[in-house]
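User: Can you predict the 3D structure for this chain?
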Amino acid sequence: MLAELLHPERVRVGLELADKEAALRAVAALLTMPEGTANEEAVYDVLLERERLASTGVGSGVAIPHGRYDGVAELRAAVAVCPAGVDFNAVDGLPVKIFVAIIGPRSMPQKHLAALAGVSRVLRDTVKRAALLNAVDNAEAYGALVDA
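Assistant: Here is the predicted structure, written as structure tokens:
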């Protein structure tokens, strides 16, 4: 599932993010890659609006910010890894180090839910999380997620 949504240019490791806003801005920027046709500020606004409902920090150092935005034609995902962690009001109170953001058009609610479930399943795997946190570069992190 994640392999279908992810593009190598939408994966970044070793980020230094000061706070929740910086994390959401980072993944919003990544979600516009590689073509840059989606409006970065609009994507950020969609993610922020969803975050205001409840934190997407699901625990174990993971957050899955997501939303629906008609500025993209298909579902897409982006991954940002911040080794120092960010206070994200996660359900377990721990800092978030792995952000996997998902955005897709309003016309695909079922695919959106399926993508969230698929990403959640992948990130429950402690080996996958460790591989992301220990990746030496973006390509290694991308491979850790898409190579099954």
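Residues 109-124 form the longest helix (16 residues). Residues 37 and 85 are 29 Å apart (CA to CA).
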